[in-house]
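ok so for the tutorial part 2 we go from a plain amino acid sequence to predicted structure tokens. step 1 is just haveing the sequence, like this:
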Amino acid sequence: MKSSITTFLVATLVLVFWSSSLHAQVAGGYTKAETDDLEIANSANFAMKAQEAILRKDNKDAKVSLVKILEASKQVVAGMNYKMKLKVNVDDKEKIAEVVVWKKLSGEYELTSWNYKKEEKK
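step 2 — the prediction. this is what the tokens look like for a chain of 122 residues:
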């Protein structure tokens, strides 16, 4: 009887600790960031300039501007990754872009991903 109670208590404690760890942040994963954070804004503005430079290789008049930062998250790597969902204006057309900017340890920024999100049909 005593061993049954001990087993039950141990199992209960394991279950409690296991379930609480499910809510913990995954090590190395992205964490939510505030859209008005200065580093998020700096990264978003860098992404606009970098994407505009890419588009200007084919069209010297291409224009890319930030309308709004919709969502943001960050990940500690060798520096910091900033993943953002942005409303952008590309050549006078509003689009939603999912963007990742890497801020290296040196402080230099690099655009590592820029993908347009398909519009959802209502």
